[in-house]
Amino acid sequence: MGFAKYQEDIVSRYINDNRYQQKVQARPIQKKIKNNNSITNKEKPMTLKQFAVQKARPLPVIILADTSGSMSVDGKIDALNESIKDMISTFSEEGRLQAEIQLVLITFGGSKAEVHLPLIPVHKVKGVERMVASGPTPMGGAFELATELLMDQERIPSRAYRPALVLLSDGHPTDDWEKGFDKLQNSDRAQKAMRFAMAIGSDADETMLNEFVNDDEAPVFKAHQARDIHRFFKAVTMSVTARSRSQSPNDIPAIDFDEINDDELDLDF
Amino acid sequence: MTEWLLAGASVMGPGHYSDGTPNQDAFLTQKLNRGFLLVVCDGMGSKRLSHIGSVMACRAVQDVISKESFYIDSRTLVESIYRRWLQLVGDRSVTEAVTTCLFCWCDDNGNARSFQLGDGLILAKKLPLPDPTSDFGNVTTGLGVSKKYSDWFINEFTLEVADGVVLMTDGISEDLHQGSEQQLLSALTFDLQNKNPRRIKKYLTKELMAWPTPNHLDDKTIAIAINR
Q1: What is the span of the domain harbouring residue B85?
Q2: Which domain holds residue A170?
Q3: CB–CB of B227/B35 below 8 Å?
Q4: In what order do the strands lie in the sheet with B4-11?
Q5: Under an 8 A CB cutoff, do A250 and B210 touch?
Q6: Which of A14, A112, B8, B196 is the most buried (most CB within 10 A)?
Q7: pLDDT (mean) for B147-162
Q8: What integer pLDDT is reported at residue A247 of this predicted model?
Q9: Considering chain B, what percentage of its residues have pLDDT values greater than 70?
């Protein structure tokens, strides 16, 4: 009996006692009010620094990757998975120098385009789920997702550096890609992203990819074999890291795809 | 007679220390016979002679305003300043001396006119903030690039007693919390109105040198005028 009373006593005092709970909740609020007062106190003036954002300016990199069925042939999808992994590890070493590199991966393969990796600072990426190749090539959907992201000032604020939009494809789009591309081209903001493209194999729609790139300094890269995917990603990685180190990260450095050392063996040591 | 307190500060961006390039910003604060003039210019980082372009832009504004009436038509004023800048930059490549140009010209009755070409921010109590930009950071226009009158953001407003106006380059404005601009103006005007210009410069320099945004690169320049 005595023990039960003791339990009831604890319950009533610490669990259902509203007055006690109110007191507990009130404490931190009082503390917060006190802190606010100390900021607005006349004796302690606000400083200019207090108005500054405590986050580095982002440099967004948006990858539009073809994961249609044809990518499963000749080890192309494996090369793409490895290249993305390498790119992330290089970026996370370099990314925090001058600009915070942020990455988003949009895949188009199967019934619709989808966000495979949402926008995230690259140094926070723990790993990327392997992409699997299947189905048709809904590239127009990928353009629409990229445009939506680029137009979103919450996710890519106006203080962000010009984003890089990287497209790689080994085939012809199977959806209404022109509608998506028009949206990208005609939007105030999205059209200002720097656009890189890679055509994989002879089936790729090179005319369309040529239309996609918007800088003479970075022409469409033509890949003939899976290992060329590595070379392309190395070139893009070098370009983005050069920008992140640069005093003017909005200037696009010229890319010479031939300069990438193809003699280097892919060994991890 | 209105008493104007004018002050400003400019610090080199950390990026310029590492590559040995000079501060590409310039500013000017000047009491006129009747009123004052504040100018803040930001030379475009990627251009070779932008540090010269920004200094020349300050001089161009000063030269033109010293000769003109306060009531000069805005278009004529902008054209005269642009022509004077081209003259001052001289045979140096104009496209290599690209700079933004922000200035505020105020008469002794507190009637102010503000002009802005390119990035940066002009803050005053009765001045509307520009629409949030659809661009990305550091994509800007300026003298040496723009030839359009419509690229200038021009306004008129009044400065009552204890009001202030603040001009800053995008090295500061791009790193400010969106929506906190008017609060910043009030805080600066309130805190600095009883200090002398030298102390204000020291305070602003100290603040800008310890800028808290990680990995910031740009030069930072600010100029302030308070009606006290």
Answers
A1: 4-227
A2: 58-259
A3: no
A4: B4-11, B220-227, B164-168, B121-124
A5: no
A6: B8
A7: 91
A8: 54
A9: 96
For residue B16, which residues of chain A lie inside 8 Å, CB to CB?
A: 247
* CATH code where residue B34 lies: 3.60.40.10
Give the pTM.
0.74
pLDDT of residue A41: 44
- Do residues A113 and A142 make contact, with C-beta atoms less than 8 angstroms apart? yes
Cross-chain Cβ contact A57/B174 below 8 Å: yes
Residue A163 is assigned to a structural domain of this protein: yes
CB within 8 Å of chain A, chain B residues 122-181: 132-139, 172, 174-178, 180
Amino acid at A104: V
Selected for mutation to probe chain B from A44, A48, A194 (highest B CB count within 10 Å) is A48
Classify residue A167: in a domain, yes or no. yes
* Contact between A172 and A203 (Cβ < 8 Å): yes
Residue A137 sits in the same domain as residue A216: yes
Contact yes or no for B136 and A189 at CB 8 A: yes
Instruction: Tell if the CB–CB gap between B132 and A159 is shorter than 8 Å.
Output: no
Please, which pLDDT band fits residue B134 given cuts at 50, 70 and 90?
A: low
